[in-house]
Amino acid sequence: MTVQNARTPLSITARLALVFAGIAVVCFCAVGLYLYDALHRQMAQRDDAELLNRAAVLRHVLARQDNPGAVAALPELALNTVFGQTGLALRIQAQDLRVLATTAAAVPPVATSMVPLDREPVLADIRDGSAARMLALLARTNDGSVLRVVLARQRSDRLALLRRYVPDLLSALIAGTLIATGLGYIAVRRGMAPLRLVIGKANEISTNRLRARLQVTDVPAELRELGLAFNAMLDRLEEGVQRLSGFAADLAHDLRTPINTLLVETQVALSRPRTVEQYEAAMASNIEEYERIGRMIENTLFLARADSAQLALKPAPLDLAQELGRIADYFEGVAHEAQVAIELHPAEAMLTADPILFQRAVSNLVSNAIRHSRPGGKVAIATVAVDGGVIVRVANHGDGIAAGQLHLVFERYYRGDPSRGAAQDGAGLGLAIVRAIMDLHRGSASARSADGQTWFELFFRTPAGA
Fold this sequence. Notes:
Elements: H1 12-63, H2 68-73, H3 76-79, E1 88-93, E2 99-102, E3 127-128, E4 132-140, E5 146-154, H4 155-191, H5 193-204, H6 221-270, H7 276-307, E6 316-319, H8 320-330, H9 332-337, E7 341-345, E8 350-353, H10 355-371, E9 378-386, E10 389-397, H11 430-440, E11 444-450, E12 453-461
Parallel strand pairs: 7-9
Antiparallel strand pairs: 1-2, 1-5, 3-4, 4-5, 6-8, 9-10, 10-12, 11-12
Helix pairs in contact: 1-4, 6-7, 7-11, 8-10, 10-11
């Protein structure tokens, strides 16, 4: 079996330090290239200006010579104009191309036209040769003879100076990069100190200390949203842990009653020999408790699947009048036994919802309304079309719900009667299932109670364009 070594990712501090190093390299290189080019251009301009100056001096010196022969006899007079100037070369020729004076350094041949006698040389007259910058011009001696003059500035001298400048430039580049990287690492590390404080606070939080929160007012603006999101996550976790703890306690409490009943009835039945009829009566009683436990387990599993988003909606167009009529017919017998009348006031409206879940939600409300209605009362089922959706309302007359308990009626295992005895018909999950169904439909469930009348309303949103 091949084991691959896990690669440890670089820290944010190290990554930002490397980014600073890259930025420093790019900036220093750009600045270095700019300085190098600027120095190159300045040296070239200085050399070109020197060529123009030497050309003007040469014309003046040659103009004082009597004739080309005098130039050839005393070439030092002309050559002294470039003497001591490293890299400068000079050649003077007669009209017949006879060389009258030349420096030791060879002057490359000139393929360009020469500056005429009636014009002073300018920068545009200087040309690039194979190894030098050259200026070719015509000059005149005292007797009017025309001479051909070529001045050249060797490139090697200038390039040698620039080559000596390159190591210094590279050294400055490396040193600047190292310094920028080190300073960037220090700056980032200091800047990450608030994040380390946040991490320290987060490490202090445990299941026993979920009430701890990050102080978002003390962190930089960049981390404030992270702190707010972290605190919101802690709020959800705390709520979930509290709900789970209460859910487990309530579930254990509610399961204990039917299990104890089954245990006691079974022990009594087995305490002495009994007739077949007595055993059948005991078993029939046990069946009721088993059914109650089965309903509790089914409802609990439904809520668990709803919380984990494992329930897939199968929406379909529903005729509200037809669906509510079926529900009313189903509960007709139960309502008659409870001496409660069912009134139906449906509006002509269509709704897109999961048919089975819709029936379960409304049925839970109707069953709950019948159970809490006074004999001779009535349960009203109505629909109201509103902006953005449809409301299904179930109302009944009974003892009502205290204002301080309205926000609790949709909680799991909540029952208005604090007693947990076996007389309680429900397990306190019906309304919790209603809210879960409405959450799946992106709707809402609400309750109101006043003067002995209670209304439960389910709001289903209408899709845009419907």
